[in-house]
UniProtKB/TrEMBL annotation, chains A, B:
Any one Gene Ontology molecular-function term assigned to this protein's record: metal ion binding
Enzyme class: transferase
Keyword annotations of the record: ATP-binding, Kinase, Magnesium, Metal-binding, Nucleotide-binding, Pyruvate, Transferase
Organism, as annotated: Acanthopleuribacter pedis
Binding-site positions, Mg(2+): E765, D789
Protein name as annotated: Pyruvate, phosphate dikinase
The enzyme's E.C. designation: 2.7.9.1
Pyruvate phosphate dikinase AMP/ATP-binding domain mapped to chain residues: 20-294, 312-364
Family per record: Belongs to the PEP-utilizing enzyme family.
Pfam families listed in its UniProt record: PEP-utilizers, PEP-utilizers_C, PPDK_N
UniProt binding sites for substrate: R588, R644, E765, G786, T787, N788, D789
Keyword check for Metal-binding: yes
Domain PEP-utilising enzyme C-terminal: 545-889
Source organism phylogeny: Bacteria, Pseudomonadati, Acidobacteriota, Holophagae, Acanthopleuribacterales
Length: 895, 895
């Protein structure tokens, strides 16, 4: 069978399903031709020929050249033109690569092929625009020399610059016709010297050279790297699309433009685009002339007003394309002498807002069903709908004024503006004065929680996407920029240094947690309109709230992995439930320990010299914990609430600054040196691998017993009030079955005595636990994968310290993505899979969930779905994203 | 088949192989009877009956009672005695437990069963010693009440004390005959009140009660816990041994004693033991009379002199036993009226020195072959032969004077005495003054290496068996005590506090790295005589050196896992080779960075502002590294030398104390604050999981390139001198194949250009590397498992911080052993196994080794042998231990 596929209005060999053979572009062109959409005709040389070319010592395989010649003849007849011109009009071609999946900018393209000293004159005459013809010729020579002859682009740019200087002009388009002719002569001379051969005048030679070059480009360095990073097989190959050129600059009845089938910014239906008459695509890009709108009732120069017939033809085409591709289309078109040609159509990129609206509208219009609507939306885009936003004009002004200080990692989406506070205490006090505050720290620790609460945004010098600051800020839904390494925090002088400037505590900065930008000065912000609407519980018809609610209800109708939330406070729980959470998958009890009314007793408990005073301090804490749990149960009425017993090392609860140690000592009736000694005793070289989690529960059994008693008390209180409390107790940092059994022996009697039935499960966050999950499953009623710690231990990678080399690793392609953002499926994912299988083998109905940060990452969610987990749990603001991703994973699997 | 097994000189049903059925003691008694060794006859009720008893609601199974009665009648006939006496002499019995494996002290024993108000009189008459008879009766009642009737031991002790007071005597044996009779009456009254039943007078009732009690004792709490900890199956059960009593206190022709068949302290051939005439075993224990030697030509009271016939009989028996059991025996015997009875024989415990000598002697005597000789020696015992020793008298004197300050972990065997130095600098300067020094630190870090070298011993407050101090000290063969938490180091006042005392820097202390003891004051020490002999290379016939060399040569004849050493210096390498190392499995290049002549350039390299000055500093380092490697190659001529590229985080090379930072700044021409900032930048929250290993090699490629260039240079220099250098380059902390490939791309060209062939392999120390070992094997020529880090990451357990809960975990049976000492086979071992299999699948001849601390642990070595690794690598002084353990594992497998 031939590997050359024609496409034209009369004959089309391929179709849109044949991406593997034709590449994406070739399949798209074929499909448009089949639909009757006007497309400049041409043919596609299939991907198979590329691989055969490479394996055949860079020679076209036998018969392919004849095949191409045959199709070229067909194309010439189709158009009544001839490659090389002569007695007929000259046929000009574009030669483009096109792989199975898009590899933007990786491979090569050649335009205007077929020009030579004869055809350029023919073109000049036909267009009546010799300057255009010669400029096209100049560009062709330059492009061809670079791509096919492998000559340096910069040499040609230098010759071009010389020519500009010689004529005393600044831009290329001001070079005279004679200048262009002179330049072309210079080019050709240079080529002959450098390449040893004259520039090919024969268009057929040009064509063979171009085809070989496109095939060769499959194996250029950047394409190989790109494939490696994106997991694209080396043996897929690229197709070559040989297509007739059309020109939008043949006069006033010609033109070129781009047009979306709907507004990509708002999602509003109707065409949205621009065009330029008597122009080519590159003129639009160059920005020398201002294009006109396609459709603007007030503008007589709009396409609708000026070319009503072509306009109508475009509209009809867009409708056909949308119906066919079932999505908003982004098209490029050219009008040659009153005739419309589509050069490209693809699903259009759009804002989050537009994405939601378009999906719902397409459903309402009957173009797609619910399943398709769910698939249309990129899960991560929903986070933007929930984020606060900068006033864009004010932000642009600051950027123009050079007030961008630097960039960090975009750890918590949204915009925040406020005065710099360099300590949690300062953040609280400034906030009490009514100021909006940005908490700026080298890095945050649990001591800073109150300060983070009091702030509108958080900025740190160190830390990655799952550092303490990032995790907590996302949980609170606060804008956050972390790992801003260009910033230095000087606590002594209460200043920060960044972007060559020094700012004092109390001065205004603005952070964009969606982009990672940090700016000097104040920018007005608005909170997410969607969130405000959801909070009212009332949606106007057609509002974003209604669209969102509709989407969520569709998702709920699909039986897929459930989504819970990580929430420690009633406020978090409420937001999460509003956003569709099906329960709490992780309540970190330690966050409750930092409240003003608790921390003193927590510290007493830690500093206690004997069991008695330790128990006394714990008794004082118990009512607070009980109240916390009770409130969570109330918010989550009827839904499961997984409570993790105390996890962090005790030293996190003790102060480290001298003044705080002294005041603590005074409070406790101890000497500062005694407190200091205890703080020091508790310090660890590697706290992440230290005395925490169940190790703490085993060495201090009274802590876990107090917590379980508080849970029991809260359940009883809630149920007495008719609240359906559904607690689950989760033991952290289990590495062996023996640990879990030990903890259970200590806490189970409390539950048994209460007469309640509360399941006890465990985190699987230590590699050893995953490796011995069969044993552990005997003692656990559920597993919750703590994939943050599992990643840290499994990859030997501290999330707080990895900032110093992670970016380098990702640049070098060693890691494809930050493994704390998206789970490393091959390594850490294998542990999750092994443990799930082993757990289910022992206990087929064991409940399996994830409560690491990966629970909010769509790629990771797809993986967890494939492994067969029951639920993921994520920050409240990630809940809709996770639900959408889970639904898509479910749909994908069914297909 | 009957579950009751007789043993006597005439009829013996069981034998020594039937441990599972008869328990260890029962099988041993049966075997001795079969050999014709005189043993008091009896019978064993098998372990099966125990399990049936437990499952049968604590009832003896049908027919068992009749079976026991039948055997009891046989026993009565055998001895011409009767249980309950009457017309015949009374038969007295011991009833003892005996499980398949020894569970010392876990289960119960009853002696003198059969005594009642009648038989005690018969016994009194027969022995002519009524006091002895009544005291036996008293003891029997007390023991039986406690074990069978479950009455409190202390109540009886109180009554006994009352009786002593009433008579005004201090020790039990001074209580009068009447007093004993009175006490027995008091006991019986008490028993009736407390137990509700009178003390059983019928010896048959006594017997049934005792048998049930022994069976029940299988399930007492301490036995259950012991089984759990020691992996003994619950369904093995215990046997019951019912044996006739013999008495060594029937007059001057009776006696009792213990005797080893060879000297357990030196290994010298010939009987070694003590006996007492007219006495029972407990009299020997009570220490009221001084026993006489068995064999002492100068002592007319020695057994040889006094009872030449019985002595000769004992000697003959010992020879028979040794021949039979092929090992030195530890026996208990009783002589009743001139007649010798063996009550027990077992392989005798012995010192390390004796262990080696006995194994060699038994071989020389033709009792065992080489394989058996190798199996006789406990590998760990060899470490004592290589350790320095305290003068025992001087040490005992200090202990008596109350100069023991406390105990820590025995991290490096041997004895050291010296003046306290609280910093590495001080250690160096004091040592230069000619003083022996003990370096005392909270914990050590690589900065302390020079100080450790200058010291004779190391003592730290914190850290576990694989902390920095422990690992380095063992590598240097220095005595070391770590984790001495009872000690506080006060750097400010240059003192330490411990055991209620405060010692100043410069005062003498002594540490015993074999026991963990720390003493105040000076104790003379001697270095290991074996090591001194090995260093001469000349062995006298029969010397320990000759014995050692013989053992090692036998081991080398067995083809098993090879043993390499972890060595960073020529001195380490020399010792290791002397002790039998087959190469270097781990050379930590960073240890070379701390030398006086290097550290300045290392710091320059770290503080460099640009690539140029970094390269300059590295150039200055290169000759030193080259010299280091060259010297190692020379020591290891012909053997492989695995060089690990730089591993630790850079901040380990920078000073942290203010004064040192200042002097560094001056040296570098920088401001102290600039140096401080860099130190701070490099600090990490969890350095173990931070920017180190290959991550460093990737972010600072010039470091690895310098190291590889130095290796190439050293190889060339060595080979030019005829030295057969066999380098292997090892890349640390690999987690993904991509990392290894990245490093290889950087260093391979250097090797290629040199024309040398140097294999490049990787550490497998990150769980992810183990999980994806198939991929990594494609790029690695060998794997070396870094089981320290693999344990840390895989168990989420920092070895430096685990000291705060590890002891608790081991006490509670959660961990069976410190996982840093002996590999966790189920979890971490599984990773090693998975990775080995995956690696071999891809590359069948890939070389697999271990270079963690586990490489020197016999249990771990057995495991590594089972996994099929090619070699282990350990500290120089562990090499013989590892070789012996590897040989034993190999022998075990063949069997």
């Amino acid at each position: 069978m031939s590997d050359v596929f024609r496409f034209s209005k009369t004959v089309t060999d391929g179709d849109g399903t044949m991406r593997d053979l034709l590449g994406g572009k070739g399949a798209g062109l074929a499909e448009m031709c089949r639909m009757g959409v006007p497309v400049p005709p041409g043919f596609t040389i299939g991907t198979r020929s590329c691989i055969s070319y490479i394996n055949n010592n860079h020679q076209l395989e036998d018969g392919l050249r004849a095949e191409i010649e045959k199709n070229l003849t067909w194309l010439e007849q189709e158009l009544g033109k001839k490659l090389g011109g002569g007695d007929a009009a000259p046929l000009l071609l574009s030669v483009r690569s096109g792989a199975r999946v898009s590899m933007p900018g990786m491979m090569d393209t050649i335009l205007n092929l077929g020009l030579n000293r004869d055809t350029v004159e023919q073109l000049a005459n036909a267009t009546g625009n010799p300057r255009f013809a010669y400029d096209s010729y100049r560009r062709f020579i330059q492009m061809y020399s670079n791509v096919v002859l492998d000559l340096s682009h910069s040499d040609f740019e230098n010759m071009l610059e010389d020519q500009r200087e010689a004529e005393g002009v600044k831009i290329d388009s001001d070079i005279s016709l004679d200048g262009l002719k002179q330049l072309i002569a210079t080019y050709k001379k240079f080529i002959k010297e450098e390449h040893g051969q004259p520039f090919p005048e024969d268009p057929r030679d040009q064509l063979w050279g171009a085809i070989n070059a496109v095939f060769d480009s499959w194996n250029n360095d950047r394409a190989i790297l790109y494939r490696k990073i994106n997991n694209i097989a080396d043996n897929w190959g690229t197709a070559v699309n040989v297509q007739s050129m059309v020109f939008g600059n043949m006069g006033e009845s010609s033109g070129t433009g781009v047009c979306f089938s709907r507004n990509p910014s708002t999602g509003e239906p109707g065409p949205y685009g621009e065009y330029l008459r008597n122009a080519q695509g590159e003129d639009v890009v160059a920005g020398i002339r201002t294009p006109n709108k396609i459709d603007n009732p007030d503008d007589p120069e709009s396409m609708a007003a000026h070319w009503p017939e072509v306009y109508q033809q475009l509209l009809d085409t867009l409708v056909v394309l949308e119906k066919h591709f079932k999505d908003m289309q982004d098209t490029e078109f050219t009008v040659e002498d009153g005739k419309l040609f589509l050069l490209q159509t693809r699903n259009g990129k759009r804002t989050s807002k537009a994405s939601l609206r378009i999906a719902i509208d397409l459903y309402n219009e009957g173009l797609i069903d619910r399943i398709e609507a769910i698939q249309k939306i990129v899960p991560d885009s929903l986070s933007q709908l929930l984020a606060s936003e900068f006033d864009q004009e004010a932000k642009q002004q600051l950027l123009k004024d050079g007030r961008l200080l630097g960039r960090g990692l975009n750890a918590g989406p949204g915009a925040a503006t406020g005065v710099i506070a360099l300590s949690a205490e300062k953040a609280v006090s400034m906030s009490e004065e009514g100021l909006p505050v940005i908490l700026v720290r080298e890095e945050t620790s649990p001591e800073d929680i109150a300060g983070m609460h009091a702030s509108t945004g958080i900025l740190t010098q160190r830390g990655g996407m799952t550092s303490h600051a990032a995790v907590v800020a996302r949980g609170m839904g606060k804008p956050c920029v972390v790992g801003c390494t260009v910033m230095t925090v000087h606590y002594e002088s209460s200043t920060i240094q960044m972007g060559g400037r020094r700012l004092k505590e109390g001065e205004f900065i603005s952070i964009d947690g969606t982009t990672g930008e940090v700016l000097e000065g104040k920018i007005p912000t608005t909170s997410s309109p969607l969130l405000r609407e959801l909070e009212t519980g009332q949606f106007e018809a057609g509002s974003q709230g209604e669209q969102f609610a509709k989407l969520m209800s569709w998702i709920d109708d699909i039986a897929v992995m459930k989504v819970r939330t990580n929430a420690d406070t009633p406020a978090d729980a409420r937001v999460a439930r509003l956003l569709g959470a099906g329960g709490i998958g992780l309540c970190r009890t330690e966050h409750m320990f930092f409240g003003e009314d608790r921390i003193q007793n927590v510290r007493k408990m830690i500093l206690a010299h004997d069991e008695e005073s330790r128990i006394e301090a714990l008794h004082a804490l118990q009512p607070h914990q009980e109240q916390d749990f009770y409130e969570l149960f109330r918010e989550m009425d009827g839904l499961p609430v997984t409570i993790r017993l105390l996890d962090p090392p005790l030293h996190e609860f003790l102060p480290h600054e001298a003044s705080l140690i002294e005041s603590l000592a005074t409070n406790m009736g101890l000497t500062p040196s005694a407190v200091r000694a205890r703080v020091r005793d508790l310090e660890e070289s590697n706290p992440m691998l230290g005395h925490r989690g169940c190790r703490l529960g085993i060495s201090h059994p009274t802590i876990y017993r107090m917590q379980v008693s508080a849970i029991v008390g809260a359940v009883n209180r809630a149920r007495a009030e008719g609240v359906d409390a559904q607690p689950e107790v989760m033991v952290p940092l289990i590495g062996t079955k023996g640990e879990l059994d030990h903890v259970k022996r200590s806490i189970e009697p409390i539950i048994r005595e209460s007469g309640l039935e509360i399941p006890i499960g465990t985190m699987i966050e230590i590699p050893r636990a995953a490796l011995t999950a069969d044993e552990i499953a005997e003692s656990a009623e559920f597993f919750s994968f703590g994939t943050n710690d599992l990643t840290q231990c499994g990859m030997g990678l501290s999330r707080d310290d990895s900032g110093s080399f992670l970016p380098l690793y990702i640049d070098a392609g060693i890691y494809k993505r930050d493994p704390f953002k998206s789970i490393d499926q091959k390594g850490i994912g294998r542990l999750v899979k092994m443990a799930s299988e082993a757990g289910r083998e022992i206990k087929p109905d064991i409940k399996l969930g994830v409560c690491g940060e990966h629970g909010g990452d769509p790629d990771s969610i797809r993986f967890f779905h494939q492994v067969g987990l029951d639920y993921v749990s994520c920050s409240p603001y990630r809940v809709p994203i996770a639900k959408l991703a889970a639904a898509q994973a479910g749909i994908e699997e069914r297909a």
